[in-house]
Amino acid sequence: MSWIDRSFPTTATPSDLVGRVLGLNPGMMTGPGTNTYLVGRRNPILIDTGAGIAEYPPLLSRYLAERGWSQPSRIILTHRHADHLGASPSSGHASGASTSRR
């Protein structure tokens, strides 16, 4: 997939309330990877958990630490595609965050 920009940032902070962590699963449908978001000030909510790529939980942990957060307070899974909920056990159960699915 030569069209995927390998230098695309794996994390970003669009605002004080929103952080983005890339799911690290590049592909035709995901571009550089599924976006996962942390929303909030002190106890962020994690929106989606990526595809379950082994390098994602450490990347998420590093980003949480950079923002001064220890863990997400809750996890919201937007839909049942594997690239959005694949890492929910490693992202939620390890942190103690509750998971909401609709």
Please provide a written account of the structure.
This protein has three helices and six strands. It has 102 residues and is an alpha/beta fold. It has a single domain (11-101), classed as Metallo-beta-lactamase, Chain A. Strands 1-2-3-4-5-6 form a six-stranded mixed β-sheet.
Q: Helix and strand string, N-terminal first?
A: EEEEHEHHE
Radius of gyration: 13 Å
Summed up, the helix count is 3
Please give the domain count: 1
Strand order across the largest sheet:
1-2-3-4-5-6
CATH architecture: 4-Layer Sandwich
Dominant shape: globular
**Fraction of residues in helices?**
10-25%
**Proportion of strand residues:** 25-35%
What structural class should be given to the helix and strand makeup?
alpha/beta
Q: State the separation between the terminal residues, measured CA to CA.
A: 33 Å
CATH homology group: Ribonuclease Z/Hydroxyacylglutathione hydrolase-like
Task: Give the total of beta strands.
Answer: 6
User: Which sheet architecture does the biggest sheet show?
Assistant: 6 strands, mixed
